[in-house]
Amino acid sequence: MDIDAAELQSFLTDLDADIRARADWGEVADYIPELAKVAPAQFGVAVALADGQVLQAGAADTRFSIQSVSKVFTLACVLGRSGEQIWTRVGREPSGTRFDSILLLEQEKGRPRNPFINAGALVTTDALLAGRAPREALSEVLAFLRLAAGDEDIHIDRAVALSEERTGFRNIALANYLKSFNNMTNPPEMTLGTYFHQCAIEMTATQLARAGRMIAQLPRAPAILAPEKARRLNALMMTCGHYDGSGDFAFRVGLPGKSGVGGGILVIAPGVASIAVWSPGLNLYGNSHMGTFAAEQIARFTGWSVFG
Amino acid sequence: MDIDAAELQSFLTDLDADIRARADWGEVADYIPELAKVAPAQFGVAVALADGQVLQAGAADTRFSIQSVSKVFTLACVLGRSGEQIWTRVGREPSGTRFDSILLLEQEKGRPRNPFINAGALVTTDALLAGRAPREALSEVLAFLRLAAGDEDIHIDRAVALSEERTGFRNIALANYLKSFNNMTNPPEMTLGTYFHQCAIEMTATQLARAGRMIAQLPRAPAILAPEKARRLNALMMTCGHYDGSGDFAFRVGLPGKSGVGGGILVIAPGVASIAVWSPGLNLYGNSHMGTFAAEQIARFTGWSVFG
Amino acid sequence: MDIDAAELQSFLTDLDADIRARADWGEVADYIPELAKVAPAQFGVAVALADGQVLQAGAADTRFSIQSVSKVFTLACVLGRSGEQIWTRVGREPSGTRFDSILLLEQEKGRPRNPFINAGALVTTDALLAGRAPREALSEVLAFLRLAAGDEDIHIDRAVALSEERTGFRNIALANYLKSFNNMTNPPEMTLGTYFHQCAIEMTATQLARAGRMIAQLPRAPAILAPEKARRLNALMMTCGHYDGSGDFAFRVGLPGKSGVGGGILVIAPGVASIAVWSPGLNLYGNSHMGTFAAEQIARFTGWSVFG
Amino acid sequence: MDIDAAELQSFLTDLDADIRARADWGEVADYIPELAKVAPAQFGVAVALADGQVLQAGAADTRFSIQSVSKVFTLACVLGRSGEQIWTRVGREPSGTRFDSILLLEQEKGRPRNPFINAGALVTTDALLAGRAPREALSEVLAFLRLAAGDEDIHIDRAVALSEERTGFRNIALANYLKSFNNMTNPPEMTLGTYFHQCAIEMTATQLARAGRMIAQLPRAPAILAPEKARRLNALMMTCGHYDGSGDFAFRVGLPGKSGVGGGILVIAPGVASIAVWSPGLNLYGNSHMGTFAAEQIARFTGWSVFG
């Protein structure tokens, strides 16, 4: 796993050029109107190394909507705040179903399979509120992210949040369904508002890679996440981080990762590096098409797969 | 990850004593009459290290029926024989369902979710036959295991195989169901006979730990599995190795593993160690109750979790 | 099928006495707070005959919340208004699932199985609105019911409607889920408001039996429903009128029927009679326990079963 | 319901001519090799009236494989033999799934939804055996059918039975799956053999219409079925007789019916007539395409719908 930073930088630069030459970018998520406006043919990557360096290639400083990648950070906040209590309300098994499926929720009587599908993330956000106003809970997540990334310039894109509030009927359905099973303590619209704003956080690949250092437990990362909790986040990202494409990501990349429909993927090489890739076109599982390809190439080049 | 072998041996000896003092062994699988005869209160562990040592504690030399742990080795044989073709017939996603579920098979039109649930393993065994008689295919698996373990004394327990042939109605259902979708090339009873015999292979924890060295890619392991294939087996074991308890195993243990209803679990620490635990009592997912506990304790003591 | 009215009256009087002597009334629906207040040990029955007579026994003039029985009448309005178009948006097959299931809706991509489960009834109510304000659509349903029953004294219980609006999270989930599949033309809260008010219509057994005469096509019923439409409503009531207890009702009673969680059941003997039974305690399918028993006894006594 | 026999005969003759002029016959079942040989463009109809007349049109005397229509008669035998005990092993609710679905069987732990889907019919046949050899059980069914039809010339087509035995993998799966839930008392292959032979009974439309007279309770029918049992068979045929097309058949035809993949449908007008239609081409639910059309036309012409 000893990688020469200069060689890796050269590889990333070539990878960026290679990807830009390709035509198969996938399709931008169209169910959130604001996200549908983003041009698919974009790519950026950033790799935060153990020695503190952050390598970059492509549009590593372009902001994008982190969407479901935020679920890792809200879960980290909730685990920090109330420990393992959350597991009474949400499981930690892969779901085998789409990110917005409501099917298993009925079969399992309102306890979502894991905190990374939408239903489970709604429960996590509901727990994050903990009697506070949405503004306070969101401030906590932003403060946590800024501290993790060492960068104050991280914000919520309110246009995206409002766009989801107006059109996110499936998430509204999930929240009300959870409420009907008494697995939502706040009014559904309050949890939903918080959730849509949390998903609408904008970050660059560089910021995201830096924020992920604590999950990778890099030596110079801010000490804001207990090693045990980082380990658990990685386990969940490995088995559940890509919805019904999680097995395929593990098979091809061999690293824990969490994707968002904005096209970002946070990939963790525990103890070694935190990687953020971004490309807005999605594959059929709703994960970044070129981002997944890039993650696979990087894992292959570096030999960072946790599977040997 | 530098572990002192003497310290680990001492830990394993204590762990064995600790487990023997407990009363909650779980229930022995009762749907295979021959296995139902096994006493639940047994425990054995073996750890094959990179330097060639094999540490042992408890009943590490007692033979047990490896059952579904065999699926890892038949898949290795099939991958070696015909490469990646198998993935046209079986997926590699966690199923979120019981090991013997037929439900997803209907929804997904006869293509099992992964090769470690029963339906997927039947497809793998069907591919293993490749026009040969069951005897030949089984000889290949046995030869592969003996070579991997460096031990000729590995055999099939025919009483167990016959016991399953007489009572394995759910597996007979799965095989015929696959046939109805044209995802079984041999007569169902031929593939079933091979499958029941493969599951009835008997090994000790020591033999199993030694056989797993190639999957862990330990330096002194026999060179009979390409690194790329070992990596893929590990990825599948991590996401799918414990049926609908896979996420929980990843969360608690943090290592790829594959369980069998005989109470054995093969656990891989890539590049570092191959671990076999055995205890016949099962938890509600059909995985060894004490075996899972032991794997968790060993991972915690050694810090071998791939998640940092 | 020639029944002497005096004999039937005597039978109904005895049936009422018999039921009052029993203790197994079932449980009142508790998920709508206002309905949970109703005492379960009540029973009423009314039978409208072809000659214009309406026989009564028990609390036949006590008002109750007709709830899902209303779905028959809104469907009749929609069929009258826009004909068979509705079948592009909703099916007419039994669902085999609970009245409020969301599971099939995902599998069938937002097209509910039939208009009598909640999801399908929400689509019907959505079609009923047809660009009008809720008040207008509800006025149409009320006017239709008053005309059918020949009784102006039929109203909506606003306390029940508000109770459902505050607590009907599962219906809110269904409406938003339908919207996400573009099978809801109005804002979900608008259709939901109309739906909750429609379900909150209060009627007596006598009024309900009289309103059902047009579906039974009794000679003296107001001519406000074409025979072809009446026939279709009866077919749907037979196969889908009691959720996942529809087969059992057909088996035991042998007549088309539609139940509501308020404890009412409208039962049709085509060409012969319209029957309304009411008892608030429910069986495990969510249908009136004593109402079903009474319907079975009446069918047996009269020989009105359509099955000979 | 007073129909002039001469007018009806004239209508049937015209209907036959009309159907022969059409091109949309549907597809012959291809999963049973012997049935796949049958030419789709065939049609026959027979109507047994209360006065003893049997009207005919088209190929009313051509033999066809009655397949699942047999399920009505084996159920009648079982109800006659052991009464209502069968309902502890099989339900009476519409399934909402395909005739050969295994999905619900897993969710409902081996108790099939109703006796007319394949899983339920296998349970009925298993109960029919009642400790006897298959030959004896089949003799009972044949004797019952011959008595009902008043015609000794009814036989099993062994080529069809063997064809199913060789290729009926999905039924083999269902039988073994039932066995795994202890809902099959005989060895699966014994019940399957009996089932395949029962389905391979050959009859003409005329014979089938005559055999159905007892279910219609026509005055001159042989008295071999209690009225209560006939009523129950009709209820089951109405709600479950056409698999996941049962609701549609009730909606369009308005009479109890049972279809088979050989293209036959038995349709009952209780107290009035027993109708058999046959045309081998199937619609997407696996029911006769032209047979359903013909049943609908006859119901419309005669006004025999039980729904008024």
TrEMBL record, chains A, B, C, D:
Q: Which GO terms describe its molecular function?
A: glutaminase activity
Tell me the residue numbers annotated for binding substrate.
68, 118, 164, 171, 195, 243, 261
> Is Acetylation among the key words of this record?
yes
Q: Which residues form a coiled coil?
A: none
Q: Does the keyword Methyltransferase apply?
A: no
Pfam families reported for this sequence = Glutaminase
Its Enzyme Commission number(s) read: 3.5.1.2
Q: What class of enzyme is it?
A: hydrolase
Q: From which domain of life does this come?
A: Bacteria
What does it catalyze?
A: L-glutamine + H2O = L-glutamate + NH4(+)
Question: What does the UniProt keyword field contain?
Answer: Acetylation, Hydrolase
Family, as annotated: Belongs to the glutaminase family.
> What binding partners and quaternary form does the record give?
Homotetramer.
Task: Give the NCBIfam families listed for this entry.
Answer: Gln_ase, PRK00971.1-2
State the protein's name: Glutaminase
Which species? Thioclava kandeliae
What gene does this protein come from?
Answer: glsA
